[in-house]
Task: structure prediction
Amino acid sequence: MQRVSEASVSVEGRRFAAIGPGLLLLCGVVATDDDGDRDWLARKIVALRIFDDDAGVMNRSVIEIAGEILAVSQFTLYASTRKGARTSYSAAAPPEIAQPRFDGFVSALERERGEPVAKGVFGAHMQVALVNDGPVTLWLDSKARE
Result:
């Protein structure tokens, strides 16, 4: 999760989605993720106070600043580099599981936020551009819940 001034996703040289100030979410899915994980993450993301208030203190949520959200599925977040120099992605859920769970996560974000959420193209080779604001980057794990 990155606080951004702007972010966009392009596929085959064409801009597919873009946002202004808000959050870029790089989302990984494992086979054991369930509705409870999805809902916890959606609630947590829209409520986290990581945007500056008038005093310059991170005290506002994405909702409070009327920020936007761009969600991008990224199976490589679950890469294992344990053996050799070639990464393994066996911890990531296969596409037939990951895609409906990612889409469900985006829907949960939209429900919590009360606004549409922009997203990348699942399974596509994407170019993700962003201007990280801060920088502020957080790792959220629904299993650890911290």
